[in-house]
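Practice problem: predict the structure.
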Amino acid sequence: MPLIMITSWQYSQYIFTFMIHFIKKLVIHDDQAMNIFFPAAMWLSSRFAIAVAMLLIAPLLAAPPNGVAATFSSHAFSAWDSGWYEKIATFGYDYANDGKEHSIAFFPLFPLVIRTLMTLGLPFEVAGILVNNLAFLAALIILYFWVEERYDKSAARWVTSVLAWFPYSLYGTVIYTEGLFLLCSTAALRAFDRHQHIWAAFWGALATATRLIGIMLIPAFLLVAWKQSRGIKAYLASLATGGGLFVFSLYCQITFGDALAFIHVQKGWRSSYGFASEGWWKMLMQILLGQTNWKGGYIKDPWHPLLLLIIVVGSYLLWRFRLQLGCVKVRFGFYLLWFLLWLVAGESLIKIVFIFGGVYLLWSLKNQIPLVAVIYGFCSFGLILNTGLTASVERYAYGIVSLSYAFGLLLARFQRWGYGIMGWFAIVLVSFAVRFAQKLWVS
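Answer:
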């Protein structure tokens, strides 16, 4: 066992060093080398908070209902989809068009990279953690320089901080595809924005080999190429972005005789597609009335709507008398009311505000972020909101880097509000990390 740990640590060092050199060659000029430390610091501090929550805090807590007792081990970083990726990396894909769940639903790049590291002697969990975390670090660095090129260091720091500390950045550390997908999609968008069409095609193909939503890069690139009257190279790069999806589809045809196996297998997870109006309405009613009252069909628990009414009235009074109270009191008053609203309404509040607020934010700042990021964001939201499900949509939306870009620019304009928001992000991130370690559902 000690020999395995030493070998794993040595491989980790080699991989980390290679990633840093690769990123520096790809996006960083010599006179910008020092700027790498801010996104690296955001990555390290946020990942450290997650690790402390999962490995030190969670094991001290009793096993919750429907959960398990957390332990100080790499198992804390593996749950739900992680098991599917382990199965693929270890045994390969399986599929049958029988309406049940099969591993072919999960795209190949992430388990393929993990499998490559496993052949070097790393256990699955160590390899999975390394791949996702280092890819997430690379995504933060690329995003930082993309924003800095268009704006300044302040904007770049706020955008990077949002991506690093947003509660669902938990999935950039556990064994999920968020880190790798953010790396590929962000690099592709930045390259296309800079008219580097070959690099855009390369990273775009990797994105479509990581997640289905990566195909939204194709219409984004095509529309921007048309809008900006780019040449034939831009159109070819747009189409080449689908190379990852094409190869995976070809594999499905050769292996299982079904080129769209990854689509057909979705019947195991959902019975229909389209906008999940019932699910969103249910969440809204749970926020307004409370879970108990919604289930009972009448006001069984009057405290929930009463507390909600107090929060709404308090918000109105703060805004009504904002000039008399002053900026500081108003700001901290809204901080307190939002925190209480979160405690009362729960995760449904985060989901609805993040999804529909995110759409509004993209529209509001459409002239401030790169056009390719705007179109990609709206195309991605169109796909996410028509999956027929509300489960996990907020995690998928977090993978739309356009949202972090837009929200970071907003906070750069209202920095005093931003500090409080980032503090709340950290609290929710730690709570999500504890819940994930206890195998409680998080998005």
